[in-house]
Task: structure prediction
Amino acid sequence: MLMMLQKFCGVLTLILAVLYAYQAFYVVVGLLRRKYPVSGQAKTLHRYAVLISARNEEEVIGELIESLQQQDYPKELLDIYVIADNCTDATAQVARQAGAHVYERFDRVRVGKGYAMDWFFHRLQEEGKGEVYDGYFVFDADNIVDPAFVREMNHVFDSGDYAAITCYRNSKNYASNWISAGYSLWFLREARFLHFSRMQMGTGCAISGTGFLVSAQVVRDNGGWPFHLLTEDIQFSIDCAVQGRRIGYCDKAVGYDEQPTTFQQSWTQRMRWSKGFYQVAARYIGGLFRGCFTQKKGRFACYDMMMTVAPGMLLTMGVLGINIFIFLSALTEPRIVATELVQDSLLFVMDNLFNFYLVMLLYGAVTLAVEWKAIHARAVDKVIYLFTFPLFMLTYIPISLAALVRRVEWKPIRHNSSASLKAKNGSLT
Result:
């Protein structure tokens, strides 16, 4: 029986490797070319609204609004709105003083960015502004953006091919510690070896929480923003895949955000992400699976998104758990049998953990090498945090387990990293 379980684990590991093997091809594509070519300039300068949902963000929201006001884009075509969502500080006052239109919302029941966005879109409709804008930029309050951000996103949006567009996501505080560096390297890997490769291959991307542009027509078609799971961004992305809508990526539009620096903050945030992925998988996995066979142009996008939300980490943990069970059970077997089973189980567990570390180290090393100049940190910090990156990823194991059994609610992450951009070279100060 125990030997059969061992063989089962080996087969399951092989199946997982085959299912996710396509992402190795993404890496190859990402290494071949750096910039995604945009064919020509935009024919139309579209009118946009910027939406910033903020909860107690008085320390950072001013820098974001300032960076938006410095855009190389006609000011009359870019309106900045701030939703001061259940704030108890001076977020609304700071935003107004910075020049934004501020809407204050107080709702202790419908908590989270998804609810705030939906509320805002309905307010715009009530005020007769539902048809004014061609698209909506969505940011978190801790973001800042390059001066060319809106113009570059407009180039891609003007093609009319995409329901939404995500940006190149960089970080303000890469070098704060191993936690912020872990986040930063992961998002850089996502930009270079997921979004960029997907655009090269003509398939759909996914939005990543902040720094994205969504078509106003899609908002109207959806009757607002009906995405209220814990990870409303990935819910929207998966819904687009199921509906046959494409999400694009703009490599030249660079945004920066502040990453958590304490393990408690990171635990809270990633617990929400993990729980949200479980929620999305439970709701959409069937639709994605059907889309792999029924959609004419979006089959691969459906498969890609299915693998994105599939509980791969959970299955990996299941394999490790079975081997731990084999190890403990073997202790009751005859000595000759027990010795072999114990050795095999320990070797399997250690092998998988070591291989996981090596794979993440390789991912990190390749990302670091190709994005070296984009990372705002000392060379020594870049190298040191490369080796802690796999450890950061390993902490997903207990987080994913906890998210499976614990109740998780949306909680804000406090931000206080104030940064600005030098207009000439886009460097952080």
